[in-house]
Amino acid sequence: MLDKPAYHPDEIEFFFSREKEVLNEYFKVRDAVYLEQFNLPNADILHDAYDDKPYTEFIIIKHGKKIIGGGRLIFHFLGTDTLLPFEAENFLLKNILPELDLGNKSYLGVDRVALLKDYRHGDTGREIIRLSDYRGQELGINYIFTVNPPIQARLNKRHCSALGFDFHIRTDIEIPDKPSFNGKKMLLTTADLNHPNHSTRNLFPK
Q1: How many CA within 13 A on the CB side of residue 41?
Q2: What tens-digit pLDDT sequence spans the chain (206 residues)?
Q3: Is residue 172 part of a domain?
Q4: CA distance linking residue 114 with residue 119, whole number of Å
Q5: What is the per-residue DSSP string for the chain?
Q6: Into how many domains does the chain fold?
Q7: Is 27 inside any structural domain?
Q8: Which of 31, 134, 168, 169 is 20 to 30 A removed from 143 (C-alpha atoms)?
Q9: How far apart, in whole angstroms, are the C-alpha atoms of residue 171 and residue 108?
């Protein structure tokens, strides 16, 4: 059983940032977490072109003055040819999920989510999903996709169910390995932002 966190949830701040100093602190946390969880040979694998793209945004998580984690949102807007990080020419979401008609939709991928061990309690993960949804609704996004290890995929499903998402874990789809996966089994998840049973639109002030 996990101990109760040594902080109050109200002390945790979530915000978007592309400020260089803030991102550098997030990258340090991200490197440490992924080196531990995925046993990567080095952290350079985590730093790719998506970190610098204009269609990428970062959620930052802060406790006091300390950056404790964050995540990355990559946007595919209708009419663009942006691939999400786990896609490839032979693994395109629009081909794998034809029922979603993604050629006529905007969508985003959430990846590189990392949180220092002492803060992996409570609803931090749920707040990342909630904020991703809010930003997606602002920008006219139809779907959110993630690729996670099975344990994290099931935890995300629990969070999304609490938020009222139409959320699915696609165990029928095999995810091609990437250097950052380091051979671990990964599962594709989908969340429909058009589903009528949820809305986080009013939970975050502009």
Answers
A1: 4
A2: 334 455 556 788 999 999 999 999 999 999 999 988 788 888 888 999 999 999 999 999 999 999 999 999 999 999 999 999 999 999 999 999 999 999 999 999 999 999 998 887 667 888 888 899 999 999 999 999 999 999 999 988 988 888 888 899 999 999 999 988 988 999 999 999 886 555 444 343 33
A3: yes
A4: 10
A5: -PPPPSS-GGGEEEEE---HHHHHHHHHHHHHHHHHHH--S-GGGG--GGGG-TTEEEEEEEETTEEEEEEEEEEE-TT--PPPTT-BTTB-HHHH-GGG-GGG--EEEEEEEEE-GGG--TTHHHHHHHHHHHHHHHTT--EEEEEE-HHHHHHHHHHHHHHT-EEEEETTSPPPP-TTTTT---EEEEEETT-TT---TTSS--
A6: 1
A7: yes
A8: 31
A9: 20
Tell me whether residue 57 is in a domain: yes
41 lies in which domain range?
11-192
Which tokens sit at 143?
């779907």
* Cα 34 from Cα 43, distance rounded (Å): 8
Q: The CATH number of the domain where 68 resides is what?
A: 3.40.630.30
Nearest in space to 74 (alpha carbons), one of 113, 108, 105: 108
Which residue is associated with the tokens 């602002």?
138
User: Token pair of 161, please?
Assistant: 């169910």
Q: Cα 107 to the chain's mean position, in Å?
A: 12
CA 115 to chain centre: 12
- pTM (predicted TM-score): 0.88
